[in-house]
Amino acid sequence: MNRIKTLLYFLGSKTLTAWLAGVFVIYYLTAAVWSKEAFAYFVSGLSRKPVFQTWYSLLLINVAIRSTISLLSIRHEKLKVLLRLPLYIGMVLFLFSFFMSLNARQHRLIILGEGDVFDLPWERTMFRVVRVESALEKNAIRTEASAIFDYEPGIIISDWRGNEYHVTAYPPKKVISGYMHVLNFGIGPGVKISRNSLTLMKAEVALRLTPFGSVDKFEMEPYTFYISILPSGTVKKGRETAREYNLKKPRYRIEIVKGDKTITKAETDSSVSFDNGMRLDFFPPADWVLLEAVYDPFLPWFAFSVLLLAAGLLIRAFWLFSAPIHSKRP
Amino acid sequence: MSRFVLEALFIAAKEGVKLSLCVFIVISLLRRADRKQLIGSVLVGIGIVFVSSIGAMSSEATIEMRETVSKLVGYVFGLFYIFSLAALFHMSGTNMLGPLKDVVVKKPVLFSLILFLTIIYFMPDMAGSSLYLKDLYYMSGRDLLVFIASGVVFFGAAGLSYVLFERAGVGVTRLFGLPQTLLMLSLVKLVAGGVRGFAEFSLIPSVQSGLMKLTHDAVHQMLVMLMVPDHPILSVTAWNYIGVLFGEGAGLWLSLLLFMLPLGIFLTQHFSAEPVVPAEAKSGAMRRKFIKAFRDERVLRSIPIFVFMLFIFSNWFVQKGDGAYRLYVPEPVPAATENGVVVIPIKSPSKDLSDGMLHKFSVSIGEESIRILVMKRPDGTLAVCLDACEICPPDGYGQGKGHVVCLYCNTPIPYETLGKPGGCNPIPLAALVTDKDIRIEMKEVSLKWSDVKTGKTRESIER
């Protein structure tokens, strides 16, 4: 019994807090000076390496016991307890949910366009993309100082029961048991490749063509197609010149490579012929998004703990600064 | 007198004064603590350091060895700062030694400990400075005056300043208990720990960039956990607000807070501790006298800590203007292309890519200008990368001390890791480096640049 008491006393001691802090600082210092990326290695270690997990568990236990002891020591001063509660609970919850989140999180990145169907390993239902909300004006104007996107992109998806969810970049949307948000947006040119009127391929290819001018490629054996979007025209206002991009019918620069030889270079908004009888046609592009889907039962706890911690710190700071006023005696 | 001899004199004087100041503080502490018998371990340690410095000077120093010595200086500063914090908290009632409490006070243990600390404290500085003196000797065209003058000045400065400290500093040593001594030693190292002559006097810029990297990484991790999208997609909306957390100001203040917080906590504990009046002090006058002495001692012992904090606080922002943030950002020079290959000569009348400076080149694809950076790494090889990071918008990099720095998010990237993929490192390019030039396939440049601008690289990080 005495041994358990001694162990509990040690686990809740300032000495252990100081040792754990010291161990982290020495680890960080050593890793940062000698091998770099110390923090990233530490975070990934929390979900993989028993040494890091043990250190973290000890810290969590230590903080939990110390917070409890602190609260018990002021239990008769109800106002004090109430004001300190957010900080203590916030701290413990933050450490707990961060650790659990790192270890329990499942994560998928999916490129999606309108009409696509997808499923996730942690959901029983499938999803269909109802609509993609574009991040770009259909007639986009760009200067050197322009942002990459005009709007924050979004997506509307429905589950198999017909429930619809509107997912944007931020904040993440709760969709059944997981969370989703849009991580990136792009344009997928519609292409048809044919040989002597025989269609070999027809699809919308999700390429990274924004910021405009970026070159991306797609392949169809033995050809590689390098594509970028060109301005449809320029707009002049005073001294400034802006480029105009018509995204209903974009103008493309295309380079077709066969093996290691460039066989065709062209600028077009409709079609290009190449390699004796081959033809590439463009039809209106579609928008696509990169969706990040996460299953993390501890994410709400983590977000809540961040809020609690921030509130607790503010109250604590306010209390500390106002303490001399409270304690002034006549 | 040549510039090289002048710089050698400066190094020698600095190291001499530093040595005597540190030895004086430590010996004063041992005398006051009635541990005079341990002074021997300090002297033995210094003797070992001298011998090793001569050894370092006469050995064939590789670039790796120089880098190791330079890193050790910063590392030892960090260790002494941690030791001083531990000692401060121990003195204010938190038992930091646990079961080791009875072991460390034994004489052989103390002797070995002091010897070890003396060696690790002085060795990197002395070895680093010796290597730099050797460089100066060669750069001056093997002028022996570099060694002779620096030797004379070193011993002269050390002896003279020790005598001065002995005469003037006796009263001041009252301020220094063990924690204050350790803190002062770390301060000395921070202020004058540079081992590259005029070019590097203090360690503040490197400590600052290390701490800023920690705060940047912690903020970034929080955002990833909370599923906040990275830079490009939020640039028109929430990024304007979230970006504040990655800004220069936030990083500077957060890192300062991180550095000062333990000392602030200690001071709060230190000044809120109530005096425990011994039972022998029976009369009111004796009790009052004891309490007065307790409070005086408390104020005196906190002075070195306030000095440390004040020094850091004032220099943090001065260095911000002069060191960490005054980056060298060269204008990109247009590079020639031959049959779809970018060709950059390693040496030309106006440029030498092996000079250790950051070099930028531009190539055009259509209307777009793409930047390439080339820099010599500490191992002597050339790093060839895009002037863009995998995460941020492609603002490029500037050169700081020991790091290149991402101009968008201020993340410092050590020279050694240039050319390695991942995180905020510049994206490496596959290049053929010969004796004469660097050759990069235009397609490689174009594809990697396209990945950057569309955020494809970021996805691979997420995966």
Question: Describe it for me?
Answer:
The complex is a heterodimer of chains A (330) and B (463). Chain A has 330 residues and is of the alpha+beta class. Chain A has helices at residues 2-11, 14-34, 38-46, 50-73, 78-104, 299-327; strands at 106-113, 117-119, 126-133, 139-142, 154-159, 164-168, 173-175, 178-195, 198-204, 216-220, 223-230, 233-237, 240-246, 251-258, 261-268, 271-274, 278-295. Chain A starts with a helix and ends with a helix. The model of chain A has no long low-confidence stretch (mean pLDDT 87). With 463 residues, chain B is α+β, with helices and mostly antiparallel strands. Chain B is 58% helix and 13% strand. Chain B has a five-stranded mixed β-sheet with strand order 1-6-7-8-12, covered by helices on one side. In chain B, strands 2-3-14-13 form a four-stranded antiparallel β-sheet. The chains are: A alpha+beta (330), B alpha+beta (463). At the A-B interface, helix 2, helix 3, helix 5, strand 8 and strand 11 of A face helix 3, helix 7, helix 11 and helix 12 of B.
